């Protein structure tokens, strides 16, 4: 790293890197400018969530939530699954003992700069928990950059400040947020975007508009808060990667005018709504070290980027209310000639662009053939691992009302589960010829995934307190109890991986 680069704040370097990659995307993946001069705006955080009534029709083939914080986490897990697969294949090509591979990776000679195999003598490995085989390299940290504050609790003060009338939207709400309430009363507890400004630190749902059909997708503030306990690892990735300290988000990068320190501290801080979880760990161990493998509440840092930097980098921002001003009676006749009171026409866009870098080690995979990498081989000098344009939760050119495997995003539930299944199948083959190696744990996991009759069964763990997935679910359950009013977004769990098979080829 040059001295000049070191002088640029980390947050600014992250923002520039993200925008450089976005600028390199094809036009069809960006907001549009229309012949009349009007343009689409979109936060680099997304704005689309699937309506609650559509969830039962998704069959695992539709993205429920296209806010980009959520897409970024799903894309991260897609990339990480492929990195694990690539490293497994690379190892299989080496005619050496698995212990030699582990020793080499822990002597800074790892084949992947991002992940490595866990060493049995590492902290956490001496416990009875059989953690997954891989972990993220200890010198890696992950940051998320957004051009707008996360929707929900962290942005409530910003919402209030932006309103001409700061009166909260009025909705009926039951006063007891207990999860033991009947479903209809639970539903009342899930607040719409900006309803009841006076109620802070509670779970809210998307969208923030009262004239739209409701969803059960929780706000990005709530989902990010939950990730401070469950880590960035998804259910699928948790089969392969252990929840070490750096599997958590290290920092959230935002424009400085999109940060309410009060809101962020309440929503994410160690003294905010999650403070009851401080010091807790899963599995329970009063002597746990901060860096030990396992789940715990790990608040992330909030980093800021100067407003002028973001304005120079991001031309697709929503027009700010401060760009207009009140018109005096004496000016009413000359409004048409006064450019200071006229804003460019704009409307929100509905396109979500997804891009990930290729894995650091090349590998073939059946589930990665339709990745868009042929359309966009490189982006900002980085090889493409996945490139998709998504509208209403499905790939551009497909319909939400009739989801198909062909139109499903690689980040959809079905595609990620299918990717994990294929990776574990290949891992079984890889370890068949390892002399003296027994991989019963891998085989048990693989069989449970392949034999699951539904997505619900796949996510449900039947293990005991030593099962990593059971421990993960316990941590999530405890975190949701602290987050007041968390209502499950159920209805899209009864399908199997048959949804990825062409209907004409399915067995009767």
TrEMBL record:
Annotated A to I editase domain residues: 45-243
Region ranges (Disordered): 324-345
GO molecular function, one term: tRNA-specific adenosine-37 deaminase activity
Any GO BP annotation: tRNA wobble adenosine to inosine editing
Skewed-composition ranges (Polar residues): 324-340
UniProt xrefs under SMART domains: ADEAMc
Pfam family, any one: A_deamin
InterPro entries: A_deamin, Tad1
Domain of life: Eukaryota
Name the record gives this protein: A to I editase domain-containing protein
Species in which this protein is naturally found: Penicillium cataractarum
Lineage: Eukaryota, Fungi, Dikarya, Ascomycota, Pezizomycotina
């Amino acid at each position: 790293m040059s001295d000049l680069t070191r002088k640029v704040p980390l947050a600014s370097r992250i923002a520039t890197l993200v925008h450089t990659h976005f600028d390199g995307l094809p036009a069809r993946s960006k907001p549009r400018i229309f012949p009349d001069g009007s343009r689409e705006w979109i936060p680099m955080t997304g704005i689309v969530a699937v309506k609650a009534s559509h969830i039962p029709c998704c069959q695992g083939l539709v993205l429920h939530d296209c806010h980009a914080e959520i897409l970024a986490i799903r894309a991260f897990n897609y990339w990480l699954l492929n990195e694990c697969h690539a490293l497994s294949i690379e190892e299989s090509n080496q005619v050496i003992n698995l212990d030699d591979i582990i020793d080499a990776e822990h002597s800074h000679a790892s084949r992947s700069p991002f992940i490595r195999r866990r060493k049995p003598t590492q902290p956490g490995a001496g416990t009875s928990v059989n953690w997954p085989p891989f972990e993220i390299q200890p010198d890696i940290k992950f940051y998320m950059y957004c051009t707008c504050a996360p929707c929900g609790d962290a942005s409530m003060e910003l919402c209030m400040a932006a309103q001409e009338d700061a009166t909260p939207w009025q909705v009926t709400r039951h006063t007891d947020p207990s999860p033991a309430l009947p479903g209809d009363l639970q539903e009342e507890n899930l607040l719409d975007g900006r309803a009841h400004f006076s109620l802070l630190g509670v779970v809210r749902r998307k969208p923030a508009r009262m004239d739209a059909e409701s969803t059960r997708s929780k706000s990005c503030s709530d989902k990010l808060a939950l990730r401070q306990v469950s880590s960035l690892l998804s259910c699928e990735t948790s089969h392969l990667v252990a929840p070490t300290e750096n599997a958590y988000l290290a920092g959230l990068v935002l424009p400085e005018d999109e940060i309410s320190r009060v809101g962020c501290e309440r929503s994410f801080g160690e003294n905010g709504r999650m403070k009851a979880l401080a010091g807790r760990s899963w599995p329970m161990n009063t002597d746990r070290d901060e860096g030990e493998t396992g789940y715990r509440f790990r608040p992330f840092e909030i980093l800021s980027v100067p407003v002028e930097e973001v304005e120079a980098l991001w031309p697709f921002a929503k027009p700010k209310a401060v760009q207009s001003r009140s018109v005096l009676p004496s000016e009413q006749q000359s409004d048409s000639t006064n450019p200071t009171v006229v804003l460019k026409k704009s409307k929100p866009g509905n396109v979500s662009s997804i891009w990930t870098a290729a894995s650091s080690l090349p590998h073939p995979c059946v589930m990665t053939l339709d990745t868009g990498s042929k359309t966009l081989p490189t982006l900002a000098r980085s090889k493409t691992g996945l490139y998709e344009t998504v509208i209403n939760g499905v790939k551009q050119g497909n319909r939400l009302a009739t989801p198909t495997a062909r139109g499903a995003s690689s980040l959809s539930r079905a595609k990620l589960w299918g990717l994990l299944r294929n990776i574990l199948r290949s891992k079984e083959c890889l370890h068949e010829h390892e002399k003296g190696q027994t991989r019963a744990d891998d085989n048990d996991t693989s069989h449970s995934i392949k034999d699951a009759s539904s997505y619900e069964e796949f996510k449900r763990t039947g293990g005991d307190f030593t099962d990593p997935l059971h421990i993960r679910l316990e941590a999530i359950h405890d975190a949701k109890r602290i987050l007041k009013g968390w209502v499950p977004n159920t209805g899209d769990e009864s399908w199997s991986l048959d949804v990825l098979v062409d209907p004409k080829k399915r067995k009767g």
